[in-house]
Amino acid sequence: MMERYLRSPFTMSVFLIGVAVIYSMSIVMEQRDALFLIITGVYAIFVLSYFGLMAYYNRKFPDRRFRIFTLIPYELKEEDEGHQYITYRACRKVYIYYYFAIPAAIVAVALFKGVELLPVIVLTVLGIGQYFIFWSEIKKLYE
Questions:
Q1: CA nearest to 110, candidates 120, 101, 98, 118
Q2: What's the gap between Cα 96 and its chain centre?
Q3: Residue 55 to residues 9, 66, 109, Cα–Cα distance (Å)
């Protein structure tokens, strides 16, 4: 259960949404008030607890360790040929998604130049879409 949470694209989606919310609030708010500090603090606690849980997991299961500082996403789990094939299919679906989503996002940002936060919103939606598509294929590993 703990490994599933640590590898979950849902967790990365929450990280992405948190960064987008904090950035958007910093643009919209002229002064940093208590709400901004509370949201930033909650986000920091969430991130720190995630990495703390990862360190705990690494100590409890040394044979299935997570590399904390890596360029390979934690969602990728390629232990055997079956996992590699499912990862291949998921990455292929994400590539097809971006093939159509990036041009659509560029058109949306170009049409609505007046909306100041639209680029952040578009990037966040693209990222969440990626995680959703990837997870819809990867969940076959856990069933």
A1: 118
A2: 18
A3: 19, 8, 40
